[in-house]
Design goal:
about 55% helix, about 120 residues, mainly alpha
């Protein structure tokens, strides 16, 4: 059996000259690093309430209405609560202003009226 040697490879060096490269002494080619793609998704909505409602015999239309109008109702109630809080704040500020004006302008009658307003407000 006649075994031939491996073919000799010719390479160009950085200075421009050519030389023979012994393939047995060359480093193994490096494989490209593996790229890992990770997808991060938002968690699916919790559908426990819908499953319980459908299991108890409520129709799909009622469940869909609850899904649609539930968050809408929360938003509306929050807006109403914010409006009422603003009105209560304005009423307190205006009452404080009226009491101070009556105290400073009204003399003894104004001080008595301011006292009665303050007593009525504390009840």
């Amino acid at each position: 059996m006649n075994k031939l040697p491996e073919p000799v490879r010719v390479v160009q060096l950085p200075d421009g000259t050519y030389t023979y490269a012994d393939t047995a002494h060359l480093p193994a080619p490096q494989a490209a690093p593996q790229q890992i793609v990770q997808h991060i998704h938002q968690a699916p909505p919790d559908r426990t309430v819908q499953r319980i409602a459908l299991g108890s015999g409520v129709g799909a239309g009622a469940v869909a209405a609850g899904v649609y109008f539930g968050p809408l109702l929360v938003g509306v109630l929050t807006a109403i609560a914010a409006n009422l809080a603003m009105l209560a704040f304005l009423a307190a500020v205006m009452t404080w202003g009226v009491v101070n004006v009556v105290k400073s302008v009204g003399g003894t009658d104004g001080q008595a009226a301011a006292k009665s307003l303050t007593k009525n407000r504390r009840r």
